[in-house]
Amino acid sequence: MRRSYGDVALAGFAALVCLFLVLPSLIVVPMSFNADNLLRFPPQGFSLGWYETYFAREDWRSATWNSLAIALSVTILATALGTLAALALIRGRIAFRNLYIYLMLTPMIVPPIVSAVSMYGVFARLGLVGTLPGMVLAHTALALPFVVINVAAVLQRMDWRVEQAARSLGASAPRAFFLVTLPLIRPGLIVAAIFAFITSFDEVVVALYISGSRAVTLPVQMWSGLRFEINPVVAAVSSLLLAISVLSLIAIGLLRRMASRGSAP
Amino acid sequence: MTGTSGPSASGGEIRLVGLSRDFGQIHAVRDVNLAAGRGEFLTLLGASGSGKTTTLMMIAGFVTPSRGDILVDGASIAGKPPDKRNLGVVFQSYALFPHMTVAENIAFPLRMRRHGLAETRERTEAALAMVQLSGYADRRVTELSGGQQQRVALARALVFRPPVLLMDEPLGALDRKLREQMQLEIKRIQRSLGITVIYVTHDQEEALILSDRIAIMHEGEVHQIGTPDAVYERPLTPYVASFLGESNFLDGILEDKTDSTSWVRLPSGEKIGAQATALPIGAKVRAMVRPESIALAPSPSGQAMNALPAEIEVCEYLGQSIRYFARSADVTLTVRAPRSDAGHRATVGERVTLYWSQQATLLFG
Fold it and tell me: Structural domains in chain A?
């Protein structure tokens, strides 16, 4: 294949943009292997000590478990609710459909700090601040729009005659959904679930307000780590989170490709 | 047939009584009364928006009727959900399950009915044999061609032996050659099973080939129901005449009539004869004649003929026939003459006389 100078220039520019976007995040990786006890770049020597500290210390461990428990609950709750909402929005005959869509997307549009303050006001009154259920509810609200958007997209592409065919062949509405519709939209559902997981797992602003002292999540723990004891544990945790995010994105990419191949006629 | 384990002959009787469907102010289907007997092939023929698909979807249970009833073998099914109606449905888009193999697709209705494994396998194989796809059981449906997918859809809709099969433009996505082949196939299977078919299409040729009877729909209403030759030769409305086949219309005034013939005065002053009518003398009428009924030379048959002077405007060579557009006064008539090696072929600009039988001329009010 012949390449013009334009193509080379474009590829070079794209590479620069990627570098510019990604490099600042990647810098934490060498920093996390620092032998020194300061957050600095370039690192001085090599050590896995900060990873050891991370796994050994009770506050980091409990924050990790909290984050995982909250994110997994959010994934299940947001995916189920978001899928039902998307089904209703796409298939149902609903008055004010657009109003519902905008309402459901607001958590994505409203600045996180505004969500955080308003949720804090309500949750404090309900005694939900500093509890895991409170965190799950708050993050489910934030994750919902991502699920609705993703699931609505696959539902819109689906041929409804396929589900009608299942009904005509003797499947009740629930059976047609679980045997035919669900398998066909599954790749979209999994992408939605991964988005929900990341939304919760990475979230810090709302968590700072709602988590209190008893439901501290990993990002909140990192935040206080940075403020009170600047050392490379934060870099080690960041590297781990980065790895999780990258793996999730790769999974999403693969699923998207599977989905588009599956829906091709 | 492929033995007793295949889908068996058990056509049902289906009756639509005053079936109607409104969408807001629009009457998509208006007071449709139809009946198809056991083993009958009934086609709903119409342009898009005629209400034919809405009617079929009401029978299948995907559209709720505003009024009226649907009876299969005398029992109303209008209140039942689609899965309880036990009707086979074949969609234009095939609507196969892409995540299942060919055999899994066909076995699906048997699975829903909780048939045993052995019986399910046996009946699936028989259904595959019926549509000549015996070696394809374990293929993914996405690997099949359009024609093969339609065969799978047909086998899946028949394997549970429904009394009535509903088909919604099933050949619309296929090319001409394959369509003709599938028409033969559908007809063969329908005859051998003796199943009742309600078939929806906008393709008049397809309707004429396949159907025992055709119901022509227009703007939500059934204009005429009859055998293919009846609706073609004796259309009841100008719409039916123009939709089914080509037709020429001549507007005029009913001047005189006898028991056998009506006389129409055209605006040009010419007078033509037509079939007897019940319309009163002096009424405005439309006379209709088919292009293939018109000839450029008088026939020796001894029938009473109409003769109209005309000038050839366009001449189209169609292989087995030649189509002329001939202008007579202020109307252009279409003439379709069989191509013959000996016969005279008119040329553009030639002055000719158009001859056709008075009894081949129908009158509409």
Answer: 57-230 (1.10.3720.10)
